[in-house]
Amino acid sequence: xxxxxxxxxxxxxxxxxxxxxxxxxxxxxxxxxxxxxxxxxxxxxxxxxxxxxxxxxxxxxxxxxxxxxxxxxxxxxxxxxxxxxxxxxxxxxxxxxxxxxxxxxxxxxxxxxxxxxxxxxxxxxxxxxxxxxxxxxxxxxxxxxxxxxxxxxxxxxxxxxxxxxxxxxxxxxxxxxxxxxxxxxxxxxxxxxxxxxxxxxxxxxxxxxxxxxxxxxxxxxxxxxxxxxxxxxxxxxxxxxxxxxxxxxxxxxxxxxxxxx
Amino acid sequence: xxxxxxxxxxxxxxxxxxxxxxxxxxxxxxxxxxxxxxxxxxxxxxxxxxxxxxxxxxxxxxxxxxxxxxxxxxxxxxxxxxxxxxxxxxxxxxxxxxxxxxxxxxxxxxxxxxxxxxxxxxxxxxxxxxxxxxxxxxxxxxxxxxxxxxxxxxxxxxxxxxxxxxxxxxxxxxxxxxxxxxxxxxxxxxxxxxxxxxxxxxxxxxxxxxxxxxxxxxxxxxxxxxxxxxxxxxxxxxxxxxxxxxxxxxxxxxxxxxxxx
Lengths: 261, 261
Hints:
homodimer; alpha/beta; seven-stranded parallel beta sheet; 11 helices; disordered N terminus
């Protein structure tokens, strides 16, 4: 199995903490308290803190904030009555959605293209808002007019509309996905920790068991020995594996001899 | 702000339709019908069809399937009573989760590294299972022992645990993300060509032999079973290897029984 046991210098977050605090997640007129909670949870999962809610339906908003275990970021969320107010101090406003039925008036990018733009904007001291429309309508034309660009989440044209909480999770995952995530070098192989001689010892015991039980005709035995040798070098057995298998076959041989008497 | 109006040759899906139909999303003991529905919705959003559910809590499962607007893939979902049964015909079984509290026994990769492996496995005609544990526990050690590798979703260490529906959405998004994420260098072949069910068959015969020869005290047998399962998934056994080893152990068992009489 050729896998490294752990990525050696995997960069969990593209964005430094301080920059992530300059990104607002903005929910426009959310209707379902569970979705607000899910959005907040995804923010916590990916290390974002600033939630902003525009014109929430009052009972919904109260219910979401009073949920047991509501994260601090939900309690600290900023409430605005208008979209314009919510994004007033932002320098890059990115609307999200799928655009299958709507002719966009803004530049459209695909979600995988968003991170470099956000990263660049935050690095130069800007403030970014990522906007999610209501469950029912998504972002309406009026909302979109405040956006510098639209971010399309690449979904199946037959089922394009995502759940709000899931859309937030996918977008924030993308933003924190490592820039170097695509490995450029092949994975180093796991080295078998077993000495060649130990493998031969093991192959010898197995061959003995094969003979004891009449596994194959005598004429086939050299071929079997050859195959065993190849097999053990192809598998990446550890020293521990080797000892265990050796122990099992020694026990089998002992038992066969014992019964045979 | 430098933006192109539309990504010029953006590839919406890395995986062709036919290949996406060879990927199973497996939910282990889900407890919340809303989460099952959310997982199904994410699958529809990203063009996956095959949902499999292991040992669902009955009322939960009924409620999820009877929800208004439940997608076809939820109605067509396969129900299994055991994990082993659910993944029996899969050649690559990938568990998901966060590993902050658990010392993994399998190779661990980060989610952004998963797509090339899945893509390669599907391209060569394999069948892939992506496993999600229950909301409460995630995947337990027993479940994990059926997995070839673990996929870690890179979340904030302070809030690592994701909502089930959101975790499914993030993983499937990653798999269908732009082809830009595809590796530039070919990946070494990772996974054995053996069906998970065949490996279980093999482990079963070896366990029988262990018992027949009194390899270990009865109290150790569950631990041995667990270790065998891990070992077989770590080694890259081919279908041919599996048949040979199976043949040898069947022969050993036959011989032991024959001598014992």
